[in-house]
Design a protein that fits this description.
eight-stranded mixed sheet; five-stranded parallel sheet; 8 helices; globular; 2 domains; alpha/beta; 298 residues; Dihydrodipicolinate Reductase, domain 2
Length: 298
Protein backbone atom coordinates (compact mmCIF):
# COMPACT_ATOMS: atom_id res chain seq x y z
CA UNK A 1 0.00 0.00 0.00
CA UNK A 2 1.41 3.39 -1.02
CA UNK A 3 1.77 5.78 1.91
CA UNK A 4 3.04 9.35 2.13
CA UNK A 5 4.36 11.16 5.20
CA UNK A 6 3.74 14.74 6.30
CA UNK A 7 6.53 15.99 8.55
CA UNK A 8 10.05 14.58 8.87
CA UNK A 9 11.19 16.03 12.18
CA UNK A 10 12.29 13.74 15.01
CA UNK A 11 8.91 11.96 15.19
CA UNK A 12 8.58 11.82 11.41
CA UNK A 13 11.96 10.13 11.13
CA UNK A 14 10.87 7.52 13.69
CA UNK A 15 7.81 6.85 11.55
CA UNK A 16 9.95 6.43 8.44
CA UNK A 17 12.17 3.85 10.15
CA UNK A 18 9.19 1.83 11.37
CA UNK A 19 7.16 1.98 8.15
CA UNK A 20 10.14 1.00 5.99
CA UNK A 21 10.30 -2.28 7.95
CA UNK A 22 6.61 -3.08 7.37
CA UNK A 23 6.26 -5.01 4.12
CA UNK A 24 2.62 -4.02 3.69
CA UNK A 25 3.57 -0.36 3.14
CA UNK A 26 5.54 1.37 0.41
CA UNK A 27 6.65 4.91 1.26
CA UNK A 28 6.05 7.01 -1.86
CA UNK A 29 7.69 10.06 -0.31
CA UNK A 30 7.12 12.89 2.10
CA UNK A 31 6.37 16.59 2.37
CA UNK A 32 7.98 19.01 4.83
CA UNK A 33 8.22 22.80 4.39
CA UNK A 34 11.74 22.75 5.86
CA UNK A 35 13.83 22.39 2.69
CA UNK A 36 17.11 21.76 4.50
CA UNK A 37 15.58 18.97 6.58
CA UNK A 38 13.82 17.57 3.51
CA UNK A 39 17.11 17.29 1.61
CA UNK A 40 18.77 15.61 4.59
CA UNK A 41 15.98 13.01 5.02
CA UNK A 42 15.65 12.43 1.27
CA UNK A 43 19.36 11.59 0.99
CA UNK A 44 19.47 9.56 4.20
CA UNK A 45 16.52 7.28 3.38
CA UNK A 46 16.47 7.53 -0.42
CA UNK A 47 12.95 8.95 -0.40
CA UNK A 48 11.28 11.49 -2.69
CA UNK A 49 10.68 14.91 -1.18
CA UNK A 50 7.49 16.28 -2.77
CA UNK A 51 7.20 19.97 -3.58
CA UNK A 52 3.52 20.30 -2.67
CA UNK A 53 1.11 18.62 -0.23
CA UNK A 54 -1.49 17.93 -2.93
CA UNK A 55 1.04 16.20 -5.16
CA UNK A 56 1.99 13.83 -2.34
CA UNK A 57 -1.63 13.09 -1.36
CA UNK A 58 -2.57 12.33 -4.97
CA UNK A 59 0.18 9.71 -5.24
CA UNK A 60 -0.90 7.74 -2.15
CA UNK A 61 -3.58 5.41 -0.80
CA UNK A 62 -2.79 6.42 2.78
CA UNK A 63 -1.28 9.45 4.51
CA UNK A 64 0.70 9.59 7.75
CA UNK A 65 0.48 13.00 9.47
CA UNK A 66 3.46 13.63 11.79
CA UNK A 67 3.75 17.37 11.20
CA UNK A 68 3.31 20.17 13.74
CA UNK A 69 -0.01 19.94 15.59
CA UNK A 70 -1.08 23.32 14.19
CA UNK A 71 -0.94 21.88 10.65
CA UNK A 72 -2.96 18.71 11.32
CA UNK A 73 -6.40 20.07 10.53
CA UNK A 74 -5.63 21.45 7.07
CA UNK A 75 -3.92 18.21 6.04
CA UNK A 76 -6.80 16.10 7.39
CA UNK A 77 -9.30 18.32 5.58
CA UNK A 78 -7.49 17.92 2.24
CA UNK A 79 -7.09 14.16 2.69
CA UNK A 80 -10.82 13.84 3.40
CA UNK A 81 -11.60 15.81 0.23
CA UNK A 82 -9.46 13.33 -1.73
CA UNK A 83 -10.91 10.28 0.06
CA UNK A 84 -7.68 8.98 1.58
CA UNK A 85 -6.96 6.72 4.56
CA UNK A 86 -5.31 8.82 7.28
CA UNK A 87 -3.06 8.11 10.24
CA UNK A 88 -2.56 11.16 12.47
CA UNK A 89 -0.20 11.49 15.40
CA UNK A 90 -1.94 12.72 18.53
CA UNK A 91 -3.43 15.17 19.13
CA UNK A 92 -5.77 15.03 16.17
CA UNK A 93 -6.22 18.83 16.29
CA UNK A 94 -5.66 21.83 18.54
CA UNK A 95 -8.83 23.92 18.72
CA UNK A 96 -12.54 23.56 19.40
CA UNK A 97 -13.45 24.77 15.90
CA UNK A 98 -11.18 22.18 14.28
CA UNK A 99 -12.55 19.50 16.59
CA UNK A 100 -16.17 20.29 15.68
CA UNK A 101 -15.36 20.36 11.96
CA UNK A 102 -13.56 17.01 12.10
CA UNK A 103 -16.50 15.35 13.86
CA UNK A 104 -18.89 16.73 11.23
CA UNK A 105 -16.71 15.78 8.26
CA UNK A 106 -16.01 12.22 9.44
CA UNK A 107 -19.48 11.04 10.48
CA UNK A 108 -20.07 9.11 7.25
CA UNK A 109 -16.48 8.94 6.01
CA UNK A 110 -15.68 5.50 4.59
CA UNK A 111 -11.84 5.38 4.48
CA UNK A 112 -10.00 4.72 7.73
CA UNK A 113 -8.91 7.50 10.08
CA UNK A 114 -6.68 6.35 12.94
CA UNK A 115 -5.11 8.55 15.60
CA UNK A 116 -1.79 7.69 17.23
CA UNK A 117 -2.60 7.30 20.90
CA UNK A 118 0.30 4.92 21.32
CA UNK A 119 -0.28 4.01 24.97
CA UNK A 120 -3.38 2.05 23.93
CA UNK A 121 -0.93 -0.54 22.57
CA UNK A 122 1.26 -0.68 25.67
CA UNK A 123 1.09 -4.26 27.01
CA UNK A 124 1.22 -3.02 30.62
CA UNK A 125 -2.19 -1.36 30.21
CA UNK A 126 -3.61 -2.76 26.96
CA UNK A 127 -6.16 -4.90 28.82
CA UNK A 128 -7.36 -1.72 30.51
CA UNK A 129 -8.57 -1.44 34.07
CA UNK A 130 -12.31 -1.47 33.63
CA UNK A 131 -12.29 -5.13 34.80
CA UNK A 132 -11.18 -4.04 38.29
CA UNK A 133 -14.13 -3.81 40.66
CA UNK A 134 -14.79 -0.81 42.90
CA UNK A 135 -12.09 1.54 41.61
CA UNK A 136 -11.94 4.46 44.03
CA UNK A 137 -9.41 6.69 42.33
CA UNK A 138 -6.80 6.82 39.59
CA UNK A 139 -3.64 8.89 39.49
CA UNK A 140 -1.09 9.42 36.76
CA UNK A 141 2.20 11.23 36.33
CA UNK A 142 3.80 11.93 32.96
CA UNK A 143 7.00 13.93 32.49
CA UNK A 144 9.14 14.77 29.48
CA UNK A 145 11.54 17.26 27.99
CA UNK A 146 10.59 20.69 26.73
CA UNK A 147 12.03 21.10 23.24
CA UNK A 148 11.62 22.74 19.85
CA UNK A 149 9.03 20.16 18.80
CA UNK A 150 6.58 20.79 21.66
CA UNK A 151 7.39 24.29 22.95
CA UNK A 152 4.43 25.86 21.15
CA UNK A 153 1.92 23.13 22.05
CA UNK A 154 0.10 23.09 25.38
CA UNK A 155 1.26 20.39 27.79
CA UNK A 156 -2.27 19.02 27.96
CA UNK A 157 -2.26 18.32 24.20
CA UNK A 158 1.38 17.23 24.19
CA UNK A 159 1.67 14.96 27.27
CA UNK A 160 -1.44 14.80 29.41
CA UNK A 161 -3.68 13.81 26.51
CA UNK A 162 -2.28 10.26 26.64
CA UNK A 163 -3.55 9.83 30.19
CA UNK A 164 -6.82 11.64 29.50
CA UNK A 165 -7.48 9.12 26.72
CA UNK A 166 -6.57 6.12 28.90
CA UNK A 167 -8.78 7.30 31.74
CA UNK A 168 -11.92 8.17 29.79
CA UNK A 169 -11.70 5.05 27.60
CA UNK A 170 -11.57 2.84 30.69
CA UNK A 171 -13.78 4.62 33.21
CA UNK A 172 -16.63 5.01 30.70
CA UNK A 173 -18.67 7.35 32.87
CA UNK A 174 -19.94 10.89 32.44
CA UNK A 175 -17.61 13.63 33.67
CA UNK A 176 -19.34 15.86 36.21
CA UNK A 177 -16.49 18.21 37.10
CA UNK A 178 -12.90 19.15 36.21
CA UNK A 179 -10.49 21.14 38.37
CA UNK A 180 -7.03 22.15 37.17
CA UNK A 181 -3.98 24.19 38.12
CA UNK A 182 -1.02 25.22 35.98
CA UNK A 183 2.38 26.79 36.65
CA UNK A 184 5.91 27.23 35.24
CA UNK A 185 4.84 29.31 32.25
CA UNK A 186 7.12 29.65 29.22
CA UNK A 187 5.89 31.30 26.01
CA UNK A 188 2.59 31.82 27.86
CA UNK A 189 2.12 28.05 28.20
CA UNK A 190 2.09 26.18 31.52
CA UNK A 191 4.63 23.37 31.78
CA UNK A 192 3.41 21.87 35.05
CA UNK A 193 -0.28 20.97 35.13
CA UNK A 194 -2.34 19.01 37.63
CA UNK A 195 -6.00 18.25 37.14
CA UNK A 196 -8.77 16.35 38.87
CA UNK A 197 -11.51 14.72 36.81
CA UNK A 198 -14.60 13.63 38.75
CA UNK A 199 -16.87 11.04 37.17
CA UNK A 200 -20.55 10.36 37.77
CA UNK A 201 -19.79 6.83 38.99
CA UNK A 202 -17.68 8.26 41.83
CA UNK A 203 -14.22 7.62 40.42
CA UNK A 204 -11.78 10.52 40.74
CA UNK A 205 -8.79 10.76 38.38
CA UNK A 206 -5.84 12.97 39.34
CA UNK A 207 -3.48 13.64 36.44
CA UNK A 208 -0.11 15.37 36.50
CA UNK A 209 2.04 16.40 33.54
CA UNK A 210 5.40 18.15 33.77
CA UNK A 211 7.98 19.11 31.17
CA UNK A 212 11.27 20.97 31.39
CA UNK A 213 14.62 21.19 29.63
CA UNK A 214 16.44 17.84 29.87
CA UNK A 215 13.73 16.32 32.10
CA UNK A 216 13.70 12.53 32.10
CA UNK A 217 10.61 10.66 30.94
CA UNK A 218 8.24 9.19 33.50
CA UNK A 219 4.89 7.57 32.67
CA UNK A 220 3.12 6.03 35.67
CA UNK A 221 -0.44 5.08 36.62
CA UNK A 222 -1.85 4.08 40.01
CA UNK A 223 -5.28 2.51 40.39
CA UNK A 224 -6.61 2.52 43.96
CA UNK A 225 -9.12 -0.12 45.01
CA UNK A 226 -10.38 -1.14 48.48
CA UNK A 227 -7.45 -2.75 50.32
CA UNK A 228 -5.25 -2.96 47.21
CA UNK A 229 -3.72 -0.92 44.43
CA UNK A 230 -2.25 -1.42 40.98
CA UNK A 231 0.90 0.48 39.97
CA UNK A 232 1.65 0.59 36.24
CA UNK A 233 4.94 1.82 34.80
CA UNK A 234 4.14 2.48 31.14
CA UNK A 235 7.71 3.47 30.28
CA UNK A 236 9.29 0.27 31.58
CA UNK A 237 6.23 -1.91 30.83
CA UNK A 238 5.79 -3.20 34.37
CA UNK A 239 2.76 -3.72 36.62
CA UNK A 240 2.75 -4.13 40.42
CA UNK A 241 -0.29 -5.55 42.21
CA UNK A 242 -0.05 -4.56 45.89
CA UNK A 243 -2.31 -6.41 48.33
CA UNK A 244 -1.88 -6.96 52.09
CA UNK A 245 1.68 -5.57 51.91
CA UNK A 246 2.56 -8.16 49.28
CA UNK A 247 3.73 -7.13 45.82
CA UNK A 248 3.16 -9.23 42.71
CA UNK A 249 5.13 -7.89 39.74
CA UNK A 250 4.40 -8.56 36.09
CA UNK A 251 7.10 -7.51 33.60
CA UNK A 252 6.02 -7.32 29.96
CA UNK A 253 8.19 -7.64 26.87
CA UNK A 254 10.49 -4.63 26.84
CA UNK A 255 11.24 -4.68 23.12
CA UNK A 256 7.64 -4.39 21.93
CA UNK A 257 7.56 -1.71 19.20
CA UNK A 258 4.31 0.10 19.92
CA UNK A 259 4.55 2.30 16.83
CA UNK A 260 4.86 -0.78 14.64
CA UNK A 261 1.75 -2.25 16.29
CA UNK A 262 -0.13 0.97 15.51
CA UNK A 263 0.77 0.86 11.82
CA UNK A 264 0.01 -2.85 11.50
CA UNK A 265 -3.44 -2.12 12.89
CA UNK A 266 -3.79 0.80 10.48
CA UNK A 267 -3.07 -1.51 7.55
CA UNK A 268 -5.41 -4.25 8.83
CA UNK A 269 -8.22 -1.76 9.39
CA UNK A 270 -7.87 -0.50 5.81
CA UNK A 271 -7.67 -4.01 4.38
CA UNK A 272 -10.60 -5.36 6.41
CA UNK A 273 -12.63 -2.13 6.54
CA UNK A 274 -12.86 -2.11 10.33
CA UNK A 275 -12.64 0.74 12.80
CA UNK A 276 -9.36 1.30 14.67
CA UNK A 277 -9.01 1.40 18.46
CA UNK A 278 -8.75 5.19 18.32
CA UNK A 279 -10.67 6.88 15.55
CA UNK A 280 -11.70 10.54 15.20
CA UNK A 281 -14.51 10.35 17.77
CA UNK A 282 -12.28 8.90 20.51
CA UNK A 283 -9.43 11.28 19.67
CA UNK A 284 -11.71 14.32 19.65
CA UNK A 285 -13.16 13.33 23.04
CA UNK A 286 -9.66 13.45 24.55
CA UNK A 287 -8.86 16.77 22.85
CA UNK A 288 -12.13 18.24 24.10
CA UNK A 289 -11.14 17.53 27.72
CA UNK A 290 -7.58 18.79 27.16
CA UNK A 291 -8.97 22.07 25.80
CA UNK A 292 -11.27 22.36 28.82
CA UNK A 293 -8.26 21.95 31.13
CA UNK A 294 -6.39 24.60 29.12
CA UNK A 295 -9.27 27.03 29.71
CA UNK A 296 -9.12 26.40 33.45
CA UNK A 297 -5.36 26.96 33.78
CA UNK A 298 -5.23 29.99 31.50
Amino acid sequence: MNIGIFGVGSFGEKHIKVIQDINQFNIIGFYDPDKKKSTEISNKYQLTSFESPIELINHCNAIDVVSNTSSHYKIIEKCIELNKNIFIEKPICSSQTELNNIINKTQNYQPIIQVGHIERYNPAIKDGFSHFNNIQSISSKRTGSLNKRNQNTSITLDLMIHDIDLVISNVKSKIININALGKNKINNLCNHVTCEIIFENGIVAKLTAVRDNNMENERKFTINLPEQKIEIDLLHKEKNHIYNDKIKTHIYKKNTNLLELEFLEFYNCIKNNKQPIVGPNEACAAVNIALEIDKLIN
